[in-house]
TrEMBL record:
Keywords: ATP-binding, Chloroplast, Hydrolase, Membrane, Metal-binding, Metalloprotease, Nucleotide-binding, Plastid, Protease, Thylakoid, Transit peptide, Transmembrane, Transmembrane helix, Zinc. This is AAA+ ATPase domain-containing protein. HAMAP family: FtsH. It comes from the Eukaryota. It comes from Coptis chinensis.
Length: 806
């Protein structure tokens, strides 16, 4: 089928494009249409060239089905006989056109034509061609601005050039040659009355000699120190203008100029006529156009006060799913409860009839709350991978801009886009960036832009124009700062807490990452044991752990990843990286070795009395990043613990202060600052035990934070705020508890001097002790009776009575 036949038999929605030339007959006589050929910039229409550099001419046409083949045959016959029977061809064309016109008239009378009123537009029934030309700009206003800017700069620079170069449109001047001469020659010519005209511009002087003196001055090559080439280059028809520079400490000889009737003055630096004014105006317009081209926003056509982002689109940085790696629910582990909640939403979108027939509606929004790294964004990616609906993701920080109203505008555009593609899902990451509470202690200062953005978000989620087919997912790790209006049912119907995984969850996460990375594991690797060592690790921590283990194995060119690599990765995550080139020397090394040995001795004594307590497995005095000079590794128990008893808390206090007690025992009270972190952790634990957990008999089960803080709005509590006496009592009890724990630790050192000194010396020599070598020393540790009394809480203080008072 030829191109013309395809035009006749196919109803093409305008505009359409033909890729090659074709010829056919109409009432306009033979028209040859050749559409744009690569590397050319014109059309050929009726033997004339139409430049196609600025505008695109699109031909719109349609066809009918009644006389298509007759017209096709007529066109083909006319084309074949065109050269030999041109006149006859024209007659045939006229006949054809008359017939077509008649048919068109009848078509219009019956009302079956498809054209617009007046016969403009499309093919009508009967086969009459109608042409419609549409001019479409293919260049933007920014390009016009850049063109004006370039043109203005060029002409402005031309204006700043030295005199003698004529501007377009200026009067024709005789070409001039500028010759530089010393100032002394200028004075001599002035005194000799040889100068006709002088122009003074500060210290710069240009002058012109009298006609009778030009020839004499040109011939004096020695006096003027002109080169022979310059003299030869000066044609007799050229004007010669001499220029010189006046010394700043001399005055121009104005008196002599007046005496000799010399014409002198200064150049007019004002606007130089219509051309210069037009150039300056053009330059300013070009600069303004360039600034508008770089301006980050443009104004909407319909709303004067509504701003739009030209570069990032109306909805900010919102992205539609389908780009990058696809995440499925099978790739998410360790957060089964949160995954089930989101799977229900995906199932509702896939099979809504199952729920609709029961009168259920999908939740308007789901808020994912959890610590950083627990997998909130990963769950959202899994929803995007599982849902068979459009998934639009963005960050809340993208809504807030410098310009007031931009955030609300982007929220409107985002939800308008989602409603257009409904059913759909919107995911807003870190939603607390724009949804902070407008009342209470979180309102530090008024921020109209954030409040407008939040108000628009509230309206879109549950307002008069809300759409139940759009589900909003939000993620935050600061749910306490969110506005209550956003958290209410109807907006965020569900709040899903994404917690750190338990031991089984950590094992599942390790398996997912090991399988996904196709990690070759050695036979001694048990991911269950690795999961037991990583209590408190989040999903992101475990992913980094697997990657660190693989890097450590690849560093020594191993074929598989061994258990040792995982243990090293765990230690790097907990304590930091060992500094291989920074080692302790002299007395510092001995003090740190006794300090870590003291932790091991006290920890073993506590574990001998309390069943189920973890035991020390490794000691090291190699400095690590983060400021730690030593490291005592006590792996957690195989099962996760959610509750701690008072005797276990007391045992941990004694263990934390074991390093300080060892230094005081070995060096006769001369202690160092190495126990800084131990004291900080012990103080925090003791304060929580007394002020929050209610584990002190004198204070009782009272929450000091509640008494001291008041209500959420910042006002006083109904029973009156604490005035400070309870705080003093808590501080007294905390100090007494810590001093008692330190005294018990010293008692353990006195009961095990051989183990402390022997293990400390061995650690000082080897720098790292673990395994059976360490357990050989720790088996000799004995627990004194004072430790059992302190753990039971029967004796609050082992110190003199005066220590218990402030």
């Amino acid at each position: 089928m030829s191109v013309i036949e395809s035009l006749y038999h196919t109803k093409i929605s305008p505009p359409f494009y033909i890729n090659k030339s074709t010829t056919f007959r109409t009432k306009f006589d033979r028209i040859s249409i050749a559409y744009k050929i690569p590397n050319l910039s014109y059309y050929h229409i009726s033997g004339k060239f139409l430049r196609h550099k600025k505008l695109l001419r699109v031909i719109r046409a349609s066809s009918c089905e009644q006389e298509d083949r007759n017209n096709t045959d007529t066109t083909s016959a006319n084309d074949s006989n065109n050269k030999n029977e041109g006149k006859e061809s024209n007659n045939n064309t006229n006949n054809t056109n008359n017939k077509t016109s008649t048919t068109t008239t009848s078509s219009n009378s019956t009302g079956t034509g498809s054209g617009s009123k007046g016969g403009v537009g499309w093919w009508k029934k009967g086969g009459k061609w109608k042409w419609q030309w549409e001019w479409k700009p293919i260049i933007q206003a920014q390009e016009v601005g850049m063109l004006l800017l370039q043109l203005g700069i060029v002409m402005f620079v031309m204006r700043l050039l030295r005199p003698g170069i004529s501007l377009p449109g200026s009067e024709i001047r005789t070409p001039a040659t500028f010759v530089s001469v010393p100032y002394s020659d200028f004075l001599s010519k002035i005194n000799g009355n040889q100068v006709q005209k002088v122009e003074v511009d500060g210290v710069h002087i240009m002058f012109k000699l009298k006609k009778s003196e030009v020839t004499v001055f040109e011939s004096n090559e020695v006096a003027m120190e002109e080169s022979e080439a310059l003299v030869k280059s000066v044609a007799p028809t050229k004007r010669i203008i001499y220029q010189t520079t006046r010394p700043s400490d001399l005055k121009a000889p104005y008196d002599k100029m007046v005496e000799n009737d010399v014409e002198f003055g200064s150049p007019d630096k004002r606007s130089g006529g219509l051309l210069n004014s037009a150039l300056i105006a053009l330059f300013y317009c070009a600069v303004l156009a360039g600034l508008l081209h770089r301006f980050p926003v443009s104004f909407s056509q319909h709303t004067a006060g509504q701003l739009r982002s030209r570069k990032s689109g109306g909805s900010g940085g919102a992205k539609v799913s389908g780009q990058g790696e696809t995440i499925m629910f099978s790739d998410v582990a360790g957060v089964d409860e949160a995954k089930e909640e989101l799977q229900e939403i995906v199932e509702f979108l896939k099979n809504p009839d199952r729920y609709v027939r029961l009168g259920a509606r999908p939740p308007r929004g789901v808020l994912l709350v959890g610590l950083p790294g627990t997998g909130k964004t990963l769950l959202a990616k899994a929803v995007a991978g599982e849902a068979e609906v459009p998934f639009i993701s963005c960050s809340a920080s993208e809504f807030v801009e410098l310009y007031v109203g931009m955030g609300a505008s982007r929220v409107r555009d985002l939800f308008a886009r989602a409603k257009k593609e409904a059913p759909s899902i919107i995911f807003i990451d870190e939603i607390d960036a724009v949804a902070k509470s407008r009342d209470g202690k979180f309102r530090l200062a008024s921020n109209d832009e954030r409040e407008q953005t939040l108000n628009q978000l509230l309206t879109e989620m549950d307002g008069f124009d809300s759409n139940s087919a759009v589900i909003v997912l939000g993620a935050t790790n600061r749910a306490d700062v969110l506005d209550p209006a956003l958290r209410r049912p109807g907006r965020f119907d569900r709040v899903v807490t994404v917690e750190a995984p338990d031991r089984l969850g950590r094992e599942a996460i390790l398996k997912v990452h090991a399988t996904k990375k196709q990690l070759p594991l050695a036979e001694d690797v048990d991911l269950g044991d690795i999961a037991s060592m990583t209590t408190g690790f989040t999903g992101a921590d475990l992913a980094n752990l697997v990657n660190e283990a693989a890097l450590l194995a690849g560093r020594v060119n191993k074929v598989v990843v061994e258990r040792f690599d995982f243990i090293q990765a765990v230690e790097r995550s907990i304590a930091g990286i060992e500094k291989k080139h920074t080692k302790l020397q002299g007395s510092e090394k001995a003090v740190v070795a006794r300090h870590e040995a003291g932790h091991a001795v006290v920890g073993t004594a506590v574990a001998n009395l309390l069943s189920g307590q973890p035991r020390v497995e490794k000691l090291s005095i190699l400095p690590r990043t983060g400021g730690a000079l030593g490291f005592t590794y006590t792996p957690p128990t195989t099962e996760d613990r959610y509750l701690f008893f008072i005797d276990e808390l007391r045992g941990r206090l004694v263990t934390l202060l074991g390093g300080r007690a060892a230094e005081a025992f070995v060096y006769s009270g001369r202690v160092s600052t190495g126990a800084l972190d131990d004291i900080r952790r012990a103080t925090d634990m003791a304060h929580k035990a007394i002020a929050e957990y209610g584990l002190n008999d004198k204070i009782g089960p009272i929450s000091i934070a509640t008494l001291s803080g008041g209500d959420e709005s910042g006002g006083g509590s109904p029973w009156g705020r604490d005035q400070g006496h309870l705080v003093d009592l808590v501080q007294r009890e905390v100090k007494e508890l810590l001093q008692s724990a330190l005294e018990v630790a010293l008692t353990i050192m006195r009961a095990n001097p051989t183990v402390l000194e022997g293990l400390g010396a061995h650690l000082e020599e080897r720098e790292k002790v673990e395994g059976e070598e360490l357990q050989k020393w720790l088996k000799l540790v004995v627990a004194p009776p004072e430790l059992a009394i302190f753990l039971s809480g029967k004796q609050e203080s082992l110190l003199p009575l005066q220590v218990t008072t402030l």
